[in-house]
């Protein structure tokens, strides 16, 4: 091969590498934006669920003991949300283990107090509770959806960031590596 | 919403898009649907045509799809003009407008995966190209556990929420009975619905089981509804079977509901390639006992107790299952009532609320109007940000 051909080959190779790197950087940027969005969505849905639970607790629809348990767990969730108020902190760290534990507890309290019988009773009455039950179902479901979508986005980022070129060339810059969020978010049976 | 398939051709995805759009419109939401369509046909007012679909061989049959740079530009303009809060693309794997919309969009983009039909090898070939594009989805919906399994198979880590296809349960539950289709103790009726010549719908398996069924129940009537020419299929069937079989041709939606309400059992002998089985839900809504092949998707829809299953493509097993149901009034009542309960989970009331939960979640993550990627870049550049 002559010198001209070699030069052309090298130029083409450099161009290809440059294109790959800029493409990957753009893709990474897009994925980071997506994770920021999905974690703030999860945060918002968690707050929404806790608000609805507090409403149920304060409505007088349940017995006082169940109401107290629900109110306690919901308040713990809202406190945890306040202490990791949105903004940079939330974006960088996601939702930490501590908050995840609080949310699992809330789910468990919901499942213990709102048994299928209780839910059926709330649904049957004509005193306006069916609407609250429906909102609780929707809120719980949105938490489930938001966590699922967030973890999906996190796995996309992590997969790309584990690729050698991304690691060695530090294409991710100083952005923290997000991690999946695990907590119990099942809906009570019969809801 | 974006439908990959032409709106004027009947199909599960199109019906789903139509029903969901109309449901959301009736709740006061603002909905536009983009779909391939011929210029000279009447479209519902909420549908925008993306252009004329081209027949291409795809996935074992001829599909009418729409693609190419001109279409891509049209799809991008539609997205920018619409300023949608949420963009919902159906079947983003199919090489049509949905895929183009997904590739172009930035924002709250929801993807619904309907079928499990694409050839695995073809998917594996294009995954390196398509994979990064799929990352643009804010959230995925799978219509069935089977559709979710397909996603897992091809994308490993990807996850989705399961929201089934919807049915207007009451339209079937309250359909009028048709005396000429109702069975009697001596002359019970069973029904089949589907394209006659489509082997995957399994009419041949049912016909193969008919001699055994007629031997046990000489008065049995088989009602077959669906488009197609029965002559080829019937050429090799015994005269007794021909005498017991009635072809109704293509039936209207109200007639379909009446048929399902009236017969003693609905038989779904499909041999494969069904990712959902909406017809089973329609049958359960109508309160008719369902006897179906044990495809994973059918087992999912019936949820264990709401129907009788037989081994797929096995005429002997089919005959036994049908006999078991038709001869046992107590079992029929049990299947019918558990089916009616099961069907409620697929009612549009429930399904559209679930879809709305997904929309709201995705919008919370991307709280701005969906835009095309190039337009988004240009705007951000104007505002002086990288």
Query: Looking at the structure, what is the overall shape of chain A?
Result: elongated
Provide a count of the helices of chain B.
Answer: 16
How many domains is the backbone of chain B divided into? 2
- The first-to-last residue Cα distance of chain B is 30 Å
- Tell me, rounded to a whole number, the average pLDDT of chain A: 86
Contiguous uncertain segments of 5+ residues of chain A: none
Strand content of chain A: under 5%
Spans of chain B of at least 5 consecutive residues whose pLDDT stays below 50 are none
Assembly state (oligomeric): heterodimer
Would you mind describing this structure in some detail?
The complex is a heterodimer of chains A (191) and B (386). With 191 residues, chain A is mostly helical. Chain A is 76% helix and 0% strand. Chain A has one domain. Chain B is α/β, with parallel strands linked by helices and 386 residues long. In chain B, strand 14, helix 12 and strand 15 form a beta-alpha-beta unit. In chain B, helix 2 crosses helix 3, helix 7 crosses helix 13 and helix 11 crosses helix 14. Chain B is elongated. The chains are: A mainly alpha (191), B alpha/beta (386). Chain A: Keywords: Membrane, Transmembrane, Transmembrane helix.
């Amino acid at each position: 091969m002559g010198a001209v051909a070699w030069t052309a080959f090298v130029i083409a190779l450099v161009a290809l590498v440059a294109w790959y790197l800029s493409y990957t950087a753009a893709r990474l940027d897009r994925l980071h934006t997506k994770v920021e969005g999905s974690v703030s969505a999860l945060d918002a849905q968690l707050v929404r669920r806790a608000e609805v639970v507090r409403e149920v607790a304060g409505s007088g629809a349940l017995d006082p003991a169940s109401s107290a348990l629900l109110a306690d767990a919901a308040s713990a969730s809202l406190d945890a949300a306040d202490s990791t108020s949105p903004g940079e902190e939330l974006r960088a760290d996601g939702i930490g283990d501590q908050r995840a534990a609080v949310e699992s507890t809330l789910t468990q309290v919901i499942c213990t107090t709102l048994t299928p019988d209780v839910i059926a009773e709330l649904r049957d009455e004509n005193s306006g509770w069916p609407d609250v039950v429906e909102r609780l179902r929707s809120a719980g479901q949105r938490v489930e959806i938001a966590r699922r979508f967030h973890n999906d986005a996190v796995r996309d980022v992590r997969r790309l960031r584990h690729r050698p070129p991304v690691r060695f060339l530090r294409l991710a810059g100083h952005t923290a590596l997000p991690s999946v969020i695990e907590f119990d978010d099942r809906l009570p049976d019969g809801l | 919403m974006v439908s990959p398939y032409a709106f004027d051709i009947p199909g599960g995805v199109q019906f789903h898009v139509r029903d969901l759009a109309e449901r959301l419109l009736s709740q006061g939401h603002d909905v536009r649907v983009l779909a391939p369509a011929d210029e000279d046909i009447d479209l519902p007012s909420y549908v925008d045509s993306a252009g004329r679909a081209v027949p291409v061989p795809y996935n074992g049959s001829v599909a009418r799809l729409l693609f190419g740079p001109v279409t891509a530009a049209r799809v991008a303009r539609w997205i920018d003009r619409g300023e949608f809060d949420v963009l919902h693309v159906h079947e983003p794997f199919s090489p049509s407008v949905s895929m183009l919309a997904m590739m172009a969009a930035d924002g709250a983009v929801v993807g619904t995966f309907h079928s499990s039909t694409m050839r695995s090898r073809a998917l594996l070939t294009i995954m390196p190209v398509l994979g990064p594009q799929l990352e643009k989805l804010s959230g995925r919906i799978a219509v069935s556990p089977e559709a979710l399994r397909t996603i897992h198979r091809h994308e490993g880590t990807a996850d989705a929420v399961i929201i089934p296809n919807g049915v207007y349960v009451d339209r079937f539950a309250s359909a009028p009975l048709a005396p000429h289709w109702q069975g009697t103790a001596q002359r019970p009726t069973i029904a089949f619905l589907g394209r006659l010549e489509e082997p995957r719908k399994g009419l041949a398996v049912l016909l193969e089981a008919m001699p055994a069924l007629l031997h046990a129940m000489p008065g049995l009537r088989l009602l077959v509804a669906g488009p197609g020419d029965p002559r080829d299929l019937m050429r090799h069937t015994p005269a007794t079977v021909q005498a017991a079989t009635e072809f109704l041709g293509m039936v209207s939606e109200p007639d379909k509901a009446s048929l399902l309400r009236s017969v003693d059992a609905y038989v779904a002998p499909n041999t494969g390639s069904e990712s959902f089985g909406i017809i089973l839900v329609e049958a359960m809504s109508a309160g008719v006992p369902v006897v179906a092949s044990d495809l994973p998707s059918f087992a999912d829809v019936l949820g264990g107790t709401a129907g009788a299953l037989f081994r797929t493509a096995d005429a002997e097993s089919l005959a036994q299952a049908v006999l078991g149901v038709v001869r046992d009034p107590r079992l029929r009542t049990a299947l019918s009532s558990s089916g009616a309960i099961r069907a409620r989970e697929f009612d549009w009331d429930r399904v559209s609320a679930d879809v709305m939960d997904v929309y709201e979640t995705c919008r919370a993550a991307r709280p701005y109007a969906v835009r095309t990627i190039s337009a988004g870049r240009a705007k951000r550049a104007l505002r002086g940000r990288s």
